[in-house]
Design goal:
With 706 residues, the protein is α/β, with parallel strands linked by helices. Helices cover 38% and strands 15% of the residues. Strand 12 and strand 13 form a beta hairpin. InterPro entries: AcetylCoA_hyd_C (IPR026888), AcetylCoA_hyd_C_sf (IPR038460), ActCoA_hydro (IPR046433), NagB/RpiA_transferase-like (IPR037171).
Length: 706
């Protein structure tokens, strides 16, 4: 690792890349918020205007500020986007790709897309790379990558400068290793963004990781910060069910969005309002809480998730995610078994390590380094020949000697184990206050969060024993779009092959849930989804695309309950999934399963599952929402109260526009009642001075739906 070249101009950095790398450019950039947008834009523009050289961009989750599809949406979004996303610069290649004007000499290959944004975009669909997250570094490296660029956080200047890969230590280092190992050259560019949180531990790197470090102030801009989504009653019901499988002292993985927030809030309610939590859960289960976990988190949880999201941060702040793990398999096992009671260093701590053979007697330099690394012995302890020395105290390094052991335990033990981490993440994304909290978190707290490589988080291979000891009682919470009656899940694409998002790390966590003896997979989905053809069941007989095959089925959760499928026969799987389907679709599902010989003739859905309807759910949860335990935005929102009201109304209008009968009924009601929306709302939507028939009708529809 040599000394990097520091460049204070983005354009100069682009010049250096183009002068150093001959021929076509294959650019690798991280997924999500780790992209150095100003540098990427400068390079893209330069090559867009130079058709003699080609540019291939290999990445994932390219983010763009929200853009309205109608005049009303654009009027509404403009001030909101300016306030929330501040000076975040959109990626020019994203704008051109979505507009269908990507130049012929530029190609974009993504392995994970922003959900739904590229449906129908032939260029994006054809260039999508389907891969598991743990294979991303391998599959990016085979693209012929010769330039890697990443946004980094920085501390210090000159010789004292340290860099942090911040949100994305996930794959960059592994890609660099793989490309170098293949004998190829890759030019690495780190672009300093002073607004990126400086994450320590695995994310902190020497500047020498990069060939170029760009310090241009134009590289600094707001981090992409999507506002928190509203958590619906269906989301809360799913989150409540899922939360009841989380075991105190265990491990947790969750994702982004309203379901992740619902799980986090449910866990907080469970910890702080135990009796209310049980009553809510009883209302959803008909009083049957067998097999569910409802107690407080006396030991706490360890977070291990490719996505470090706002829900995890709230669980950390609530003191629920606090179970520390250590980067040594024997030490971790002794803690798990209770042979080391806790993080407080006692004579028993040293005795347990000696008994387990993790350190030897007499201690040598390696043993001392281990004991000091984890805080068992004080940093000032040193070896002097065959003796341990600490200040004025000296004793034999052979701790089989009772007097030596007594001296060490009296004068040389540290106060507390060091190096404990309660959150491992691969990348992060969240609202504005999420990033601000990371930027201002006290160092001793931030040190408990380790952003690290995805090949550590998403699989057991490599350091197998350590990972197994750390990830005890793991609960892997994943979201899917469709589940078949035989237990397969479709999470990434439609039946016709159109990619909605991507596989990401879902398969990795599913595989881990079966490989770890005390782990469970919780696959979550809303029981229905709206299409232009109307309401559709998300539980179906069969589906033309599968992300998770049925032999890996485990726990499936909808808003109407839990289907525990592990080890069950096909017939029983069918029955359990129909029991958590929306009741409006249950009869058809029964008919299809019977027609294919997977359900006995004459089977009738039990009466207790025949009221799986949205109104039933609302009746069950509305009292708890009114009591403040299940708020629409449990972790706050960047939207004002007025904006929330407008969004609700616009969503109703959009839904009605896709269903003619509903739109006609809504129109007649609006004309009959003749309500008017508040003038500030009309001004916000560009409707204040509307005179045309269409705009006047929209004003009435808006007013009627506020």
């Amino acid at each position: 690792m040599g000394a990097p070249k520091f460049v204070d101009s983005i354009e100069a950095a682009v010049d250096l890349v183009l002068d150093t790398v001959e021929g076509d450019i294959v650019l690798g950039i991280p997924l999500g918020v780790g992209k150095p947008n100003p540098f990427v834009n400068a390079l893209y523009r330069r090559l867009r205007d130079d058709p003699s050289r080609r540019l291939r961009i290999v990445t994932a989750l390219s983010l763009q500020k929200p853009v309205g599809k109608t005049d009303i949406e654009r009027h509404f979004l403009e001030p909101l986007v300016a306030r929330v996303f501040e000076d975040y610069p959109d990626l020019d290649y994203v704008v051109d790709l979505r507009a269908g004007r990507l130049p012929s000499n530029v190609e974009v290959r993504e392995f994970f897309m922003k959900t739904g944004d590229y449906l129908g975009n032939a260029t994006a669909q054809q260039n999508y790379i389907s891969t598991n997250y743990t294979f991303v570094a391998r599959d990016m490296a085979v693209q012929g990558m010769n330039v890697i660029a990443q946004a980094v956080a920085a501390r210090g200047t000159g010789d004292t400068m340290r860099l942090s890969l911040s949100s994305n230590p996930d794959v960059s280092a592994e890609i660099i290793e793989r490309v170098h190992a293949s004998g190829r050259k890759v030019m690495t560019v780190g672009v300093v963004n002073q607004k990126m949180p400086f994450m320590p531990n695995g994310a902190e790197v020497d500047p020498g990781l990069f060939d170029l470090v760009v310090t241009d102030p134009r590289g600094t801009h707001a981090v992409f910060a999507p506002p928190n989504n509203k958590v619906s009653f269906a989301d809360y019901a799913i989150g409540l069910h899922a939360s009841s499988f989380v075991v105190d002292g265990g491990t947790l993985q969750i994702g982004i969005g309203s379901l992740g927030d619902a799980i986090a809030q449910a866990l907080i309610v469970r910890d702080r309002h135990g009796s209310e939590y049980r009553r809510i859960l009883e209302s959803l289960t008909g009083g049957d809480l067998s097999g569910r976990e409802t107690g407080r988190f006396d030991t706490g949880l360890y977070g291990c998730s490719e996505m470090f999201v706002n829900g995890f941060l709230k669980l950390i702040e609530a003191g629920i995610v606090r179970r520390e793990v250590y980067a040594d398999a024997v030490l971790q096992r002794l803690l798990n078994e209770g042979r080391i009671a806790d993080a407080t260093v006692r004579p028993q701590t040293l005795a347990a390590l000696l008994e387990a053979g993790r350190v030897r007697a007499p201690l040598d330099a390696r043993d001392l380094a281990f004991l000091q690394r984890f805080g068992v012995l004080r940093a000032e302890v040193r070896l002097d020949g065959s003796d341990l020395v600490c200040g004025e105290r000296r004793c034999s390094a052979d701790l089989r000697d009772a007097a030596a052991l007594d001296t060490v335990c009296t004068a040389m033990l540290g106060p507390r184990l060091l190096g404990g981490v309660f959150m491992h993440g691969g990348f992060f994304i969240g609202p504005r206050d999420f990033y601000e909290r990371l930027r201002t978190m006290p160092p001793q707290e931030l040190a408990k969060i380790d952003m690290t490589r995805i090949d550590f988080i998403n699989q057991l291979y490599g350091d197998d024993e350590l990972k197994r000891q750390q990830r005890r009682r793991a609960r892997f919470m994943n979201t899917t779009m469709v589940v078949t009656l035989l237990g397969a899940a479709a999470s990434d694409a439609l039946e016709n092959g159109q990619v909605v998002s991507g596989v990401g790390g879902q398969y990795n966590f599913v595989a881990m849930s079966h490989a770890l003896p005390d782990a469970r997979l919780v696959m979550m989905l809303r029981s229905t989804h709206a299409t232009k053809q109307g309401l559709t069941s998300s539980i179906v007989w069969s589906y033309g695309n599968v992300t998770i095959p049925r032999h890996l089925r485990d726990i499936v959760v909808t808003e109407y309950g839990v289907a525990d499928l592990r080890g069950q026969s096909d017939g029983e799987v069918v029955k359990r999934l129909i029991a958590v389907a929306d009741s409006r679709f249950q009869d058809e599902l029964v008919h299809q399963a019977q027609a294919h010989g997977k359900l006995e003739a004459g089977y009738v859905v039990p009466e207790r599952h025949r009221r799986n309807l949205p109104q039933t759910l609302e009746d069950q949860l509305q009292p708890w929402a009114a009591a403040g335990l299940l708020p629409e935005f449990p972790f706050g929102t960047d939207l004002t109260d007025d904006e929330i009201r407008i969004v609700r109304a616009l969503k109703k209008l959009k839904h009605a526009s896709e269903h003619p009968a509903e739109l006609l009924q809504m129109t007649l009601k609006s004309l009959w009642e003749g309500r008017e929306a508040p003038r500030p709302y009309l001004e916000r939507l560009g409707l204040a001075d509307a005179h045309g028939l269409r705009d006047l009708l929209v004003r009435r529809l808006l007013a009627n739906n506020l």
